[in-house]
Amino acid sequence: MRYSLCSRFRGTLLGAAVGGMLAQTNNPASTKDTQPNAADFTWERLATQVAQSLIEQGKLSYPANQIRTSHSVKVIIATLPIALFYHENEARLQAHLQQFVAWQNDPELVAGVLAVGYTIASSLRETSIANLIGRIIQLVAAPQLQLTQQLIQIQSLLKQRASLAKAISVLGQEDLSSAIALSLFCYLSTPEDFSLSVKRATLVSQQSPFSSIVGALSGAHNGSANIPLPWRLALSRDRQLLGTWGVQSEAELLRLCDALVAAWSGAYNTTIDDSIQIAAIAAPRVIRPR
């Protein structure tokens, strides 16, 4: 395994948070005095609540009421812990993702949630990305959707090694499906470079949901260790943005990820205590006495 599951879990949520921070930093229209739509921040908090539900109960608490948001793509952020927790079982992953967003009654959104969730799950399983788009199309199984047609276009763009400007002209950037398609393109065109993928995402759109999704996709693939330290330090100082996730520090967000890994693995006690030393584990005869 190239990166540990713990690193990939951390990379997904930390990457989403960093992507959102960079989008706000690079948006000249965003200032500290600007009052954003309060409903737009419920999705980051909901992601944390979903993770806590999976940790404490081993099952999901589905939204009972519709939540209005000016960026419908933000719904995907709340589904990130689901993609992490059910990554090894495609059938359960698909069922839980569909059930979680069924109340939105938007086929394009459901397809987008499946596409992002399956991509993250593939990274955790270390499945080759060579035919990822084809597998997503099979999973979505809805050829009539706009997103499906855009996924087919992404396949062609990646084979051509098309530029980001070309991708924008082909895929557009006005609606939900275009945002999801461009998120996948930004990640798949530079899969091994977290910083480049997220920087390109901020060029496409200065809305935080877009960059957050690209950050989550690349973070799952590259792990938390490949998220640039200066960005992580900037995030740790951004109390306002951390507050949108319902945490007080980066360390708290990382502990949440570690507890989610523990719950996924079937650990009896998922409490992560920094004062407890974690024993090293390795294959037989790898760690030897001095």
Please outline the helices and strands:
Elements: H1 5-25, H2 42-57, H3 75-78, H4 80-85, H5 90-101, H6 107-124, H7 132-140, H8 146-160, H9 164-171, H10 176-189, H11 194-204, H12 208-222, H13 229-237, H14 239-244, H15 250-265
Helix pairs in contact: 1-12, 1-15, 2-15, 5-6, 6-7, 6-10, 6-12, 7-8, 8-9, 8-10, 9-10, 10-11, 10-12, 11-12
Write a structural description.
- This protein is mainly α.
- It has a single domain, classed as ADP-ribosylation/Crystallin J1 (ADP-ribosylglycohydrolase fold), CATH 1.10.4080.
- Helix content is 62%, strand content 0%.
- The protein has helices at 5-25, 42-57, 75-78, 80-85, 90-101, 107-124, 132-140, 146-160, 164-171, 176-189, 194-204, 208-222, 229-237, 239-244, 250-265.
- Helix 2 (42-57) runs parallel beside helix 15, helix 10 packs antiparallel against helix 11 (194-204) and helix 10 (176-189) packs parallel to helix 12 (208-222).
- The longest helix has 21 residues, at 5-25.
- Mean pLDDT is 86; it is low at 30-41.
Question: What are the defining features of this structure?
Answer:
0% strand; mainly alpha; single chain; ADP-ribosylglycohydrolase fold
In short:
The chain has 290 residues and is mainly alpha-helical. Helices cover 62% and strands 0% of the residues.
Q: Mind telling me the CATH class?
A: Mainly Alpha
Estimate percent helicity. 55-70%
Low-confidence spans: pLDDT under 50, at least 5 residues?
A: 30-41
* CATH homologous superfamily classification: ADP-ribosylation/Crystallin J1
- Major sheet characteristics: none
Beta-strand proportion = under 5%
The chain-level mean pLDDT equals 86
- CATH architecture heading: Orthogonal Bundle
Helix-strand sequence: HHHHHHHHHHHHHHH
What is the structural class? Answer: mainly alpha
| Helical segment count | 15
The end-to-end distance, rounded to whole angstroms, is 26 Å
Number of strands: 0
